[in-house]
Amino acid sequence: MIDHVGLAVSDLGQSRSFYEAALKPLGYEVLMEVTEEMTGGHGAHLGMGRDGVHSFWIGTHQAASKGVHLAFSSPDRASVDAFYDAAIAAGGKDNGAPGLRPEYHPNYYGAFVIDPEGNNIEAVCHKGDA
């Protein structure tokens, strides 16, 4: 089981704006901020999550991540739709509108957007007609 995952970004402010908006419908928010000074020059970082758990991090410590596929669990199909709309409004690029993906399994309902760094970000619900 994965405890948390992180992406390196080139512009923390731009990525923060994108992810705060895109992940809000899934219940994610910024839970922790770590400054460049706090890390002794090893980048600034934001820990995001829900229910008090920092499960997703973005930071400036390395060259920006590109081409990563990251899927966030969604409690229902409406949240997948809201994620997609929020991500597009925040500057994400369409990479697959919300809908069923029966090639994965009959209830796989997902939406895909490309983030500011070029990563494929997904929200997915595995429940039927939720």
Structure report:
The chain is of the alpha+beta class and 130 residues long. The protein has a single domain, classed as 2,3-Dihydroxybiphenyl 1,2-Dioxygenase, domain 1. The chain has two helices and nine strands, in the order βαββββαββββ. It has helices spanning 12-23, 77-89; strands spanning 5-8, 29-34, 45-50, 53-59, 69-73, 93-94, 99-100, 109-114, 120-125. Strands 5, 6, 7, 8 and 9 form a five-stranded mixed sheet that branches. Strand 7 and strand 8 form a beta hairpin. Helix 1 runs antiparallel to helix 2. It is globular. The two termini are 25 Å apart. The model has no long low-confidence stretch (mean pLDDT 95).
Largest sheet: 5 strands, mixed
Structural class by helix and strand composition: alpha+beta
- Going by CATH, what is the homologous superfamily? 2,3-Dihydroxybiphenyl 1,2-Dioxygenase, domain 1
Stated plainly, the CATH topology is called 2,3-Dihydroxybiphenyl 1,2-Dioxygenase, domain 1
Number of domains: 1
The mean pLDDT is 95
What general form does the structure show? globular
Protein name: VOC family protein
Domain VOC: 1-126
Pfam families: Glyoxalase
Organism: Paracoccus aurantiacus
Provide a compact summary of the structure.
This protein has helices at residues 12-23, 77-89; strands at 5-8, 29-34, 45-50, 53-59, 69-73, 93-94, 99-100, 109-114, 120-125. With 130 residues, the chain is α+β, with helices and mostly antiparallel strands.
